[in-house]
UniProtKB/TrEMBL annotation, chain A:
PROSITE patterns: ABC_TM1
Transmembrane segments: 12-34, 117-138, 150-170, 182-204, 225-250, 282-303
Principal subcellular localisation of the protein: membrane
Domain ABC transmembrane type-1: 113-303
GO cellular component: plasma membrane
Keywords: Cell membrane, Membrane, Transmembrane, Transmembrane helix, Transport
Protein name: Carbohydrate ABC transporter permease
Domain of life, source organism: Bacteria
GO biological process: one example: transmembrane transport
Location of the protein in the cell: Cell membrane
A Pfam family this chain is assigned to: BPD_transp_1
InterPro entries, per the entry: BP-dep_ABC_trans_perm, MetI-like, MetI-like_sf
Automatic annotation (TrEMBL), chain B:
Organism expressing this protein natively: Chelativorans petroleitrophicus
Listed GO MF terms: ABC-type transporter activity; ATP binding; ATP hydrolysis activity
Protein name stated in the entry: ABC transporter ATP-binding protein
UniProt similarity note: Belongs to the ABC transporter superfamily.
The keyword Transcription is assigned to this record: no
Alphabetically ordered keywords of this record: ATP-binding, Cell membrane, Membrane, Nucleotide-binding, Translocase, Transport
Amino acid sequence: MAAVQTSRQRLANRLAIAAVIVVTLIFLAPIYWIGSTAFKPRALATTVPPTVLFQPEITPFIKLFTKRVQLTRPVEEEVYEAAPWWERRIYDGGERVLRVGDSVQLSGYPDRFKNSLIVAVTSTLLAVSMGTLTAYGFSRFRVPGEQDWLFFILSTRMLPPVVVAIPMFLMYRAVGMTDTHIGLIILYTAFNLSFSVWLMKGFIDEIPKEYEEAALVDGYTRMQAFFKIVLPEATTGIAATAVFCFITAWNEYAFALMLTNRDAQTAPPFIPAQVGSGLTDWTAIAAGTFLFLLPVAIFTFLLRNHLLRGMSFGAIRK
Amino acid sequence: MTHIELRGVQKFFGDVQVIKDMNLVIEDNEFIVMLGPSGCGKTTTLRAIAGLETIDEGDILIDGKAVQHLKAADRDIAFVFQSFSLYPHMTVYENIAFPLRATRQSKAEVDRAVRQMAEILQITPLLQRRPSALSGGDMQRVAIGRALVRSPKALLMDEPIGALDATLREEMRTEIKRLHIKQGSTTIYVTHDQVEAMALADRIVIMNEGVLQQVGTPDEVYTHPANLFVAQFVGSPVMNVAEARITEEKDEARVFMPGAEHGFPFPRKLIALLEAGKASPDAISLGVRPEGVLVEREKREGYLPVEAHIIEPLGSHDIVDLQIGDRFLRARTKSGFVPRPGEQVWARIDPAQAHFFDTRSGNSLGVRL
């Protein structure tokens, strides 16, 4: 009987592992596609079937960071010889890099990337800190109508965001907040806040209130107890919440497209818009997307231990 | 010198009154144990003294000063929780040092105090460990260390050893007692375990349903319970209680168990004492602890014939269920004194160990023979 059980269990285990591998491959496929396209020569980017083996090159990234125009006539020999190695790659592609005087004109990408960082980091900090404080209040104090408030907070997520796109656009235009960092930060913070409150409430509910009470009788104020006891205990939850908020804010496309166009534009609406000087340059777009994936990947990687514990919260007694 | 007083304290949770008009005086250096079943209000009372719970009416005085409006931090009282509540992200050292860091003491002073405390509790080798790497007993020592390190006015403990296993609980009980004798701080200790209460307390405070039932030394509470609740809550095995009919004979009183043909002989003055206690004759309950039921194998003067039913051999002694009338009396005998169930033996009740209660109110009639 026991032997039957084990062999059946072993089979179940193998099936589970196989399923995990298949799912992982499905999820990784687009990332591989983006990653490989970012290093392909332009001519190989759209071949069918896709080219798997190729000489990787850095040209898409050079294109990503520079402004270029198409050459009207072949570049002169001595100019080509005098140009740095990266500029020759552009000449090779039938384009030339735009310069003002001696300095290379950068594309909009670095600024958009910077905008994305500013907006995503700030709104994540705001959403997580406000969410943590709110969740603490709901978790520890008797709030009149607590369930109604919590439902109201959650209900802000119940309609598809695009429903409020037009009113949002009109409101932002009326108060002059279109194309500003602060405008996007407020929007993303508001959007993430409900999520943050609910997630953090779950985490804070898990922290026994005796910890704070111990600190209270030990001579600390509630505020001190919150910072010295609750916050360190809630790091797992805070990390998990921060990752989710950051990913949402970082990847948001529709509102960024609608509410920003230049100064505060984030990377998502910008990347597909750069069509180069000729046809859509998929390698440069892939390069932009690839770089765009890195901060989230790094952020998630740094917090991976917290995240794993965070995802199984409630299941494991600490 | 710490003196704690509760005056007319009332506390409600919504419509439920959890503390009903509580009055209590706790003297300096006293070890008070609050005893009662779960939900009796003992923990709420303790938390109210600590400032973790507000009260709706009355005064809590520490050294004569009303503190009910002060925050917990300003009352200078330490609290040991049942769950120990050691901060998991700090080492043992940091846990003990934590209350000192709230005060403006120098690093050296803090260090000295922590090490001295660790020495007293014999946990010095554990100072750099995290709470999760400690045994239950050591966690408890650290929790007590954290409470005592700043020499608080009073130490409050909420079932501090309730979460430990039986052997460890006994060990820690002795240790707490020893520590109290050595350190001598006013202590209020909450438990539902009457053995713990008897072993530790200078005075026991017994509560039920938010009402203070009796305050007294372990001996007083055991030998002179104020009412049926105290009588049956304190002591193991539980006191025998039965409604009793009392008759007056020429030179003695007789106490009949329900359905019994014969009554146990009692001194004649019982009648007068019951009258003095304003007992109504149809509502008197007799209470007697198992050791107050005397058992003999042969017929003797004043002993009634009874049948032994169940015998529980407990090693040092036996507990024997004796049938009399339609009731059982549990008696405590020497091991093997009654050899077999079904045997007929003779029993009587030791008048000095008998208690009489008003059946309706449950209150003791104050009869002491």
